[in-house]
Each structure stands twice: as C-alpha cells, then as structure tokens.
Amino acid sequence: MSDPTPSTRDRILKAALLAFARDGIQGATTRTIAQEAGVNEVTLFRHFQNKEGLLAAVMVHVVQSRHQDASGDDAEWTGDLKQNLQRFAEDLYAKLVGDEPFLRTMIGEGRRHQDHAKTVIMDAVKPVRDRFIANLETARKAGLVREDIDLGIASDAFTAMLFGGMLRSTGGCSWGYEVPQFVSTCVDVFAAGLAPQPQS
Amino acid sequence: MSDPTPSTRDRILKAALLAFARDGIQGATTRTIAQEAGVNEVTLFRHFQNKEGLLAAVMVHVVQSRHQDASGDDAEWTGDLKQNLQRFAEDLYAKLVGDEPFLRTMIGEGRRHQDHAKTVIMDAVKPVRDRFIANLETARKAGLVREDIDLGIASDAFTAMLFGGMLRSTGGCSWGYEVPQFVSTCVDVFAAGLAPQPQS
DNA sequence: GCCAAATGCAAGTGCTCACTTACATATGCG
DNA sequence: CGCATATGTAAGTGAGCACTTGCATTTGGC
Questions:
Q1: 3-state secondary structure of A71
Q2: pLDDT at residue B6, rounded to an integer
Q3: CB of A173 within 8 Å of any CB in chain B?
Q4: Would residue B131 count as lying in a domain?
Q5: Which nucleotide, over all strands, has the C1' atom closest to the CA of A29?
Q6: Touching check for A161 and chain B: CB below 8 Å?
Q7: Do residues B189 and B107 both lie within one domain?
Q8: Is B68 contained in some domain?
Q9: Are residues B54 and B143 in the same domain?
Q10: What pTM value is reported for the model?
Q11: Mean pLDDT rounded to a whole number for chain B
Q12: Residue spans of alpha helices (H) in chain A
C-alpha cells in the first residue's frame, strides 16, 4: 500500500491524463481510463479513492514531468535578441502543440477546478515565464530592449501570441498561412516592438 | 409550431447559452436549463428535439446576436494608427471579457463539436478580423505600416495577445499588473512592431 | 364560447456514471 | 510452504442523466 508496483499506478496516471485531456474532466470516465490503462476499474479506485483523487494525482504528475522536461532547455541567449526570441518561440510553440488537448481542457474547465489550475500554472508555467523575463532583462541591460515597457506584460503578450496561434492552427480552419510563417512574424513584430525607439 | 411564442423559445435559448458557457456542454443539463428559463423541461424538448438540437439553436442564436451587436461599432480609423489600435483593443477586450465563459467552453469542447465551432468562428469572428485587416491595409497604404509582414498574421497575433490577457486576468492569479496597463502595452509593442523600420 | 396550440405536471424508462462489496487469483518474500 | 499485498472478476447500488408519455391547464384567435 505504501509503495504499490509503480507500473500500475503510472499506467493509470498516464491513461487518465490522456482521457482528461481528450474528453475533458467531466467527459472522462473511470471505466475508459481503467480500460485504456489495461487495468480493472476497481484497481483504479484502490489506488486513488475517487475521481477527484485521481485528478489531483494527475495534476501533480503533470507538474513533475513538465518540470523534468524543462530542466534542460534553458537555451543560451546570445547577443542577437531576435534570434533568441525565434528559438524560444519555436520551442514553446512545439510544447504548446504537444499539450494542446490538455491545455484546452484546462482553459475550458480550469475555472471549475481553480485549485488544480493554479498549482499547474504556478509550478509549470510561471518558471518558464520567469526565465524568459530574466533573459529579456539582461537583454535590456545590454541596450537591446526599450526601457518604457513592463517585461512581465511583454512576456505574457508574446506567449499569448504563440498560444493563440496554436489554438488557431489546431482548430481546423485555414487562415491563409502556415505555422512557421506565423511564428516568425510574431517574433519579427515583437522584436521590432521591443527595440529601442528612435524617439516618440 | 411554426412560430411559437417568442418569449418562451428565447428564454430557453438564453438560459441554455448561459448554462453551456458556465457548466460546459457536457456539464449543462436540460433540467437546469429549463429551470433557469422558468420553463418545464418537457417544453424544452418540445421546442428543440434533443440536447444537440438545443445546442445547435444556441449557436445560430449566438452568431445572430453577435452580428447585430457588431453592426454599429465600425469605429472610424483616423490617421493615428496607435490611437486606432488602442480603441480597437479596448473594445475587443471588453467583448472578450463579456464572453469569457462561452469562449472557454468553445476552446475546451470546440474540438468535440467542430461543426458548431467552425460556423461560430466563420460567422462571428472572421468578419471582425476582416475589417481589422482592411483597416490595417489602408493604414499601410498611408505609409504607416511596414510592407514586409502578412497583415492576417499580424491581426491574429494582436487579437491573440488580448485573448491571452483576458484568460490570464480572469484566471484568478495575480501577475503584477492591471488590465489597462496590459492592453496599452500590447498596443504599444504592436504599434512599434508594425511601424516602418529605419532599416534592417 | 370554442377550438387548437402552447405549456405545465407527474411519473416513468432506460442508460450511464461513480463507487462498493465479496470473493477469487496471482505474485513475491520470509 | 505460508502469508501479505496487489490485482482481477462479478455483481450490484444509488444517483443523475436525456428523453418520453399521458393528461390537465392555460391562452389567444375566430
């Protein structure tokens, strides 16, 4: 009971994450989760007392795994701001696409599970944000970023562009351009918008 | 049957929209919708054969009402690009906030109802986008916007910033700034990013 | 006043869901 | 082997859901 065979618990968590992301929290059923985990439904309830307990466990599991994933990719920022932004944008965009169903579920049902949403945000997205802001700050010290804007807002606006682009591209409508072009344009406009102004 | 008393049908539609937005499509129940419409549940099924029919009717109702709302606010674009962007951003942001629960539901469950999602997007958001792009285009002809970027992408990136800001501000976390500052900064960065560059 | 249409009301049907109970089987460890 | 722990199987419980049926009541136009 203290340390159940990891493979069973992990298989359930993995299947549950997939089901919650794909079908929504309301829509996911313990039956299908157990089935897709290759496990009896009763076993699911023996590991996590109820659906809410399973959901909570999935959330900490998500935070942990994203934290591991993100530990390595603190890509070095060179002197070229635009190039750094481009690399950051491509990395982030790929991750957003990879987490698309989960992110959609969090947007849609996050307000009905504010506690979980907040911990996921604080433990998984805030660190990335903080690193990005810090990088912008050093770029500013190097004179590459204008002084009159809040870098937290700038960071949030930039990631929001990419996030919106992901939602659009995965939404099934055609908008007359391709993803790489979208990302590059975002980087271009944002970099130009951050650059020290001639004068106002 | 051909033209049922408008008030009943409309009350159901209104309550259904509210419930779908608040509780999600899966989460909303015909019982609570009928209750909140002040109508017997059977009446609901007599007007719309089933939950899916109700959902479809709600979608066309949404599109129609948004279309009416948007008919008047084609605010004039003066010569000052930044001022135009600021006004557009404030208007759009207010509308996004007003539609927050519905938008969250569409993000979260839209992929499971792609048909409805597409018509809502095509009939309600694309017109706004097209007008915005057209305005950017005339600004470009006036020499206020650089030539080397796709205005469709620019438009989508700009609205995505505002959309992301709305999600953030309504998400219950504090990010160290207030909404008007966020909107103004988005406008500032975007306007600077669109401005014709000195040279690259 | 009369009739048809719209609505209300009470009850019920069949289904699915989260969750439980009781018992059988496997697996690993001393 | 013997025992504890993890898992499987079968069956069931109570609740909520979408949706239906039959009948009573209102309402508005003729």
A1: coil
A2: 67
A3: yes
A4: yes
A5: C17
A6: yes
A7: yes
A8: no
A9: no
A10: 0.93
A11: 93
A12: 6-27, 30-36, 41-47, 51-70, 81-98, 100-109, 114-120, 126-141, 151-169, 179-194
